[in-house]
Amino acid sequence: MLNIALFGPPGAGKGTQSKKLLEQYNLAYISTGDMLREEIAEGTKLGLRAKDIISKGGLAPDEIIVQIIENKIRTNTMVSGFLFDGFPRTVVQAYILEGLLTKLNTSLSCMISLQVPKDQLKRRLLDRGQTSGRSDDSEEVINTRLHEYDVKTAPVADFYDEKGIYYPVDGTGSMEDVFERISKPIENILNQTWFNVVLLGPPGSGKGTQAKEIAAKYNLAYISTGKILRESVEDGTDLGIAAKKFMDEGSIVPDEIAIKIIEKAIEENPNARGFIFKGYPRTIVQAYILDGLLRKKGSSVSAIIEIDVPILESIKRLTARSKTDMRRSYDMDVELIVKRLEEHQAITIPVSEYYAKTKKVWQINGSGNEADVRKLVMDATEEAFKKAR
Q1: How far apart are CA 55 and CA 51, in angstroms?
Q2: How far apart are CA 192 and CA 310, in angstroms?
Q3: What DSSP element (H or E) covers 285?
Q4: 321 is catalytic
Q5: Catalytic site residue 389?
Q6: Consecutive H or E run containing 366
Q7: What is the C-alpha to C-alpha distance for residues 86 and 68, in angstroms, rounded to an integer?
Q8: CA distance 123 to 135
Q9: CB–CB of 111/23 below 8 Å?
Q10: Long-range contacts at 38-46 (CB < 8 A, ≥ 24 apart)
Q11: pLDDT at 197
């Protein structure tokens, strides 16, 4: 998960750069200033408490800030991370943010600080006051706000500098130039961030073949719960014995078994640049489980590649596979094949609908030959990789 704090004094251009960052990296926007103004405009209890303080250039009490931010974080689950604009403003708030993110099994990826000379800041704020009509952009309030920043907010830089995630950036020049400077440390962080792909599709869609190609190109660890379970059954492990009955019936194994498999696979691949999950999650519950497992590691699903294959084509492929060394036990029975395809239609398709809300789903026509489908899958994965980065 990519969590960014955009830092800098009033007038540094945080709001402008935030809009570009949100679009580029699929982040949820957390601007305490904007949210407080909304509370004030709506006349809420929080807004009334904060109104007098903000109008004089002061900082709103931390208990107000915490309530607003926590609600925002909890109600935005379909994003790649969060962008904090103007928060934390004090060392106390920095500790508060650490606690909130730890509670959500994630952390701040970086603090980017826009550096702008004070004379330019005053000029920008005065100009904004003439056009925006904001009462807190008068010269007297501007001086108060800049003093507040120097006394209370600047020390926050030292807090994150000690953590090794503080990046000062020249905030002068064109919007495009500043954004390019901001993007450099973010891209470096993303290059060290997991790229996690979920490969979905009905039985016989070729998920295994395509997943291995993706894993090899992007240095991802390949996790096939089915493959691991089959190996466990062959080895006679406790996990295999528990799962065998369900596998023989062509049914989905209990979720507690899948959780153990995935957790173990992640632990056994500490140097992977991410993971590709073949055929998992197959249910909405499993989608929640996978999101939880990845959040626990400070990560999230980066892309969902769904290979669509007509039912008759799936039946033909599985029947053909039953006559090869690659056959599965459930390939030998047409009724089991039909049962698995019906189960996919009823249970697994809603998973792609769940992920569609994240705008991370790429649908592929899997009816062609292996090479044609591979090209479509790899093109989609490359697009997803660039978007995630």
Answers
A1: 6
A2: 38
A3: helix 284-296
A4: no
A5: no
A6: none
A7: 14
A8: 16
A9: no
A10: 39/68
A11: 95
Is it the case that residue 133 has pLDDT exceeding 70?
no
Among residues 56, 134, 359, 375, which one is catalytic?
134
Residue of 20, 37, 128, 212 marked catalytic: 128
Please compute, for residue 243, the number of CA atoms within 13 A of its CA located in the half-sphere on the CB side. Answer: 27
Could you tell me which of 35, 36, 26, 112 has the C-alpha nearest to residue 77?
A: 26
DSSP string, 70-83: HHHHHT--SSSEEE
Taking only the tens place, the pLDDT of each residue in 308-340 is 888 888 888 888 888 887 777 666 777 777 777
d(CA 94, CA 83): 14
User: How many whole angstroms separate alpha carbon 135 and alpha carbon 133?
Assistant: 6
Distance set, CA 178 to CA 144, 190, 327 (Å): 26, 19, 56
The pair of three-digit structure tokens given for residue 45, joined into one six-digit string: 């209890």
pTM of the complete model? 0.60
At 172-230, the pLDDT tens digits run 999 999 999 999 999 888 877 889 999 998 888 888 889 999 999 999 999 988 788 88
Query: What ranges make up the beta strands (E) of the chain?
Result: 2-7, 27-31, 81-85, 110-115, 166-170, 197-200, 221-224, 275-278, 303-308, 361-365
Verify whether residue 134 is a known catalytic residue.
yes
Residue ranges and CATH numbers for the domains of the chain are 2-190 (3.40.50.300), 197-388 (3.40.50.300)
Determine whether 340 is an active site residue. no
Residue 49, number of CB atoms within 10 A of its CB: 16
